[in-house]
Amino acid sequence: MTALMQSMSSTTNKVLGYPLNAWYVAAWDHEVTRKPMSRRIADRPLALYRTEDGRAVALADACWHRLAPLSMGKTLGKDQIQCPYHGIVYNSAGRCVSMPAQETVNPSATVPSFPVVERYRYLWVWLGDPTRADPDLIPDMHQMSSDEWAGDGETIFAPCNYQLVLDNLMDLTHEEFVHSSSIGQDELSESDFVVTQDGNTVTVSRWMLDIDAPPFWLKNMRDKFPGFDGKVDRWQIITFQSPSTINIDVGVAMAGTGAPEGDRSQGVNGFVMNTISPETAKTCHYFWAFMRNYRLESQLITTQLRNGVHGVFGEDEAMLKAQQEAIDANPDYEFYNLNIDAGGMWVRRLIERQLVAEGRLIPTV
Amino acid sequence: MAATNLEIWQTGTVVEAESITAETRRLVLSQSLPKRAEPGSHIDVMVTIDGERHKRSYSAVDSSEDGQRVAISVFRTPQSRGGSVFMQGLEIGDQLEITQSLQNFPLRVGAPRYVLLAGGIGITAMVNMARVLRNTKADYTLVYSGRSRDAMAYLPQLEGLHGDALRVHVDDEGTALQVDELLASVDPETELYMCGPIRLMDAVKRGWDTLGLSMPNLRYETFGNSGWFDPEEFLVRVPRLGVEATVGPGKSMLEALEDAGVDMMFDCRKGECGLCEVRLLGLQGSIDHRDVFYSERQQHAAAKMCCCVSRAVSSETGARADSGGERAVVTIDV
């Protein structure tokens, strides 16, 4: 093998950088209102608000004059925001429209305005080169806003590098140990899995046939099939889309009714929708939702599922926090990679390629 | 993108130098600290005039994808303060101090419609913007106005790239730009970016204002180096400090006062910020306001001036003969 054929990372980065030419979720749609709010995404502090017409705006959260946070200011008129410190007013394009104490506006007075697209109940922002902000690059999360799916979610503020969350979601063997009371079971680490990738997505599939349903899934089966008892076929199909969205097709069906071949009618199906936005190198916003395609009318089930997943993800959050602290406390220790990390390692590979393309990571040869 | 004014100085090596019109020379510089130049950005260059170092600004016409090379175009200004002569004399292999690209004229991506207006050498600021708008499939028109086709830099390349999106106005051919007609074609959603002679920009500003269009949608950069009148030598007096200084045509009033030992406050040096404001106590002649800090009302009042760019001229018409040859005299307090 020549040097050029070698893998990009001879060692695994414990804290991975984030591509900038990418769409990241900045907020849930309902979070952003006429009253400005602040949020840091990919180390860029943003002021988020809506215009009178309801259009979402993302401006750099620093006034051009003395960098006071615009998010502490107020919205004015059709689409403007006023700095809380000296009253300088900007429009939604980030252009200054009025300056205090002078009759003219300094033509240099602007703050960056970032492209925003509202889709799948989220606000997506593009923080890199705005000339490349193609909305078609937004990851597919259509279950979030489809009539055929129902559900809800929350945001976890995760005190760890976003890559640790991606690692966590790409390898679900941890469920057996972290989530033993809800979705964990021995078969997770005993069953085989298949990993595929195509340069932009990575998929990890695992089937567990003829097993007992863990508590979470038994409850869901009984919501759809009251009184259900018996063995199930369980699946987890994890799909990563660059740079940080992971949708997990999960479910169980009555054993032997044809789910692996495609007939899921005798089962329950959910999608765990996850998209992670780096905040800083060591913190991230972890937006998730659980969507289901049965008993769509039941707000009770929506709430129960959201609360159930909230509990499960709370266990992940505690582990991710502890993991980041251990990384920080042991700077001279490396990661070691196992076979179960195949999905996560492909994710790293794809992200690293994008970082190299953006000139933000120097390839090791 | 936002304005950035953090000056990072580096070495630029001339790797290409060619005359692209009788008065315009294109220089491609290899940067020791490579950085891609965004549309609207410029580089500052240290030039040597009569043994003294001075800073000049040039729009980045284009740059290579890897940021290694940046191109500028230098126009031989009739009233050059010496910078363009120095720049035009550069040859391949010459090295000079340059900044990485600086951004005071950012192109906003996402406007519904754009007009880019270039007068003469002002095209250098528009070449990159037009290319990006074309690449992003934006709705744009590039309006390029000049004296004669021969004198219009980059014209053939622009015709090839922009096709119908390019509108050319040539004085010599009787198709001179009519600002009123141009402005009649814009709507409240249009953003107009312009770069060119001050009279053209001023006409657009007035027309824009008259039509009640949104001022923030009118985008321009001010280098503060072209006034209504040719620069003349004039005198500045500061009675409180007992200072009298001569302001030569190649020098700013601020520089003359600094040279005379006056402790001056200033910042942008291009007539935008207003920090260099001085109060007029007396005036013989009239003020050629070259700043964008004062409103028209304030400029007419002639009570104050931005001494970094604005000058005094001996007569209201700018013609020395009309003043009987007397130099203008500005009496100020600072």
Per-chain topology:
The complex is a heterodimer of chains A (365) and B (334).
Chain A: E1 23-28, E2 37-41, E3 44-50, E4 56-60, E5 74-76, E6 80-82, E7 89-90, E8 96-98, E9 113-114, E10 116-119, E11 122-126, E12 150-158, H1 162-170, H2 175-178, H3 187-190, E13 193-197, E14 201-212, H4 215-224, E15 231-241, E16 245-254, E17 267-280, E18 283-292, H5 299-329, H6 342-357
Antiparallel strand pairs in A: 1-11, 2-3, 3-4, 4-9, 5-6, 6-7, 7-8, 10-11, 12-18, 13-14, 14-15, 15-16, 16-17, 17-18
Chain B: E1 9-19, E2 24-31, E3 41-49, E4 52-59, E5 62-63, E6 69-75, H1 83-88, E7 95-99, E8 102-103, E9 113-119, H2 123-135, E10 140-146, H3 155-162, E11 166-170, H4 179-184, E12 190-195, H5 198-210, E13 218-220, E14 234-238, E15 243-247, H6 253-259, E16 277-284, E17 286-288, H7 296-301, E18 304-306, E19 311-313, E20 328-333
Parallel strand pairs in B: 9-10, 9-12, 10-11, 12-13, 14-20
Antiparallel strand pairs in B: 1-2, 1-7, 2-6, 3-4, 3-8, 5-6, 14-15, 16-18, 16-20, 17-19
